[in-house]
Please model this.
Amino acid sequence: MNRLLVFFALSFLLATAYGQTNPKVAEMESQRSKLEQQISESKQLLTTAEKDTESQLQALSALTAQIKKQQQLVDRLDADVRATDREIKSIGEQITTLQAELDRCREHYAHALRLMTAKNSFENRLMFLLSADSFNQMVRRLRYLREYSTYQQKQGEELMAKQEELNAKRAELEHTRKAKQALLAKRIAEKKELDLRKAEQQKLVGSLKKKQKEIRDRIARQQKERNKLNEEINRIIEAEIAARNAEQQKAEGKADEASASTQPSGKAMPAYRQNAADKKLSGSFESNKGRLPVPITGPYLVTSHYGVNYVEGLKNVKYNNNGVDIRGQQNCQARAVFDGTVSFIFEHPQIQGSYIVMIRHGQYISAYFNLTSLKVKKGDKVKTNEPLGLVRPDASGNCTMQFQLRKDTQSLNPEQWVAL
Model:
């Protein structure tokens, strides 16, 4: 009866294919899906360039950012295809090994069946028991027959397990091959779209090259404005640090030192004196480096990066950015990247109705530029992801916010801190 059950179970396994998702393929799909979603969402942020230079420059920066994302996806797809090829080869080798193990299991099981068939008739078992020299030997022979029957059953179960594992690997191989075909098809489609974006970019660059001197002068003026604004922010931070340190020293009974510390000395600015709560907040902020949330709601494109930026296709046209410029959709909001206190709010000197909000996180400061319809005021306590205000649209309707990070007055690269 046991052999009959094993036979039917084995026949069922041989006839059944197991749908198996390869874990590495699933992991690659998961890693790629975030990038694909960002590209899909950010397509709506691409604008049609008008004839004016500013509109064309903005369209170029958005298009360049989108091309960078698209190129990342194509590169990821290429890497995934190569990884899938390696996985297919690995699964093939595993199948070869499993097949060899299954063949050995079948040989052992067939041998056990032949032996059992020779001994398994009622007469043979009875004669085997009755020919014992003593009662104790008869008991031992009976135990032997039972143990051999159990051994035979275990061999049948091992055979079924190997067949099941082999079926699963074959199904996994088939799934991985199909995944590779899907990757190749997606790669072709994404590469085609990337080429179209690049052609559009080159057309726009060709138009802007005719205005290169005008663009260079415009960017130089904008750089001066950026520098003045950054100097103003540094002045605000220095004044805040001086006032805070004076307050702390006065509380410690050092009023004379506090008075002296507020006077310009020509030396490096002292660090922000932290109390226990500040130190805890600073430590928590530091521990979230690389994981801070995006400071804008909805789909977004990073159109300008930290440090020196070059205008695509234009020779020696560059500018320096102390933060990152992030373009969002209409009515998008700025949001706090971490718990903190609104330390200062001021209006942009050259743009009426455009506000800069500064939030202190212990020794760190986050700054959000080009906001309107503010939801916070100086002194407010804010939580991570709490809305601060709308990102102000420009004349073309584009909503772009600059985001900066500082440790005291030291500028930090937001792309090392925020999960952009």
Notes: Residues 212-416 form a domain with the Glucose Permease (Domain IIA) fold (CATH 2.70.70.10). Confidence is low (pLDDT under 50) at residues 1-19, 258-266. The chain has two domains: 2-44+54-209, 212-416. The chain is about 60% helix and 15% strand.
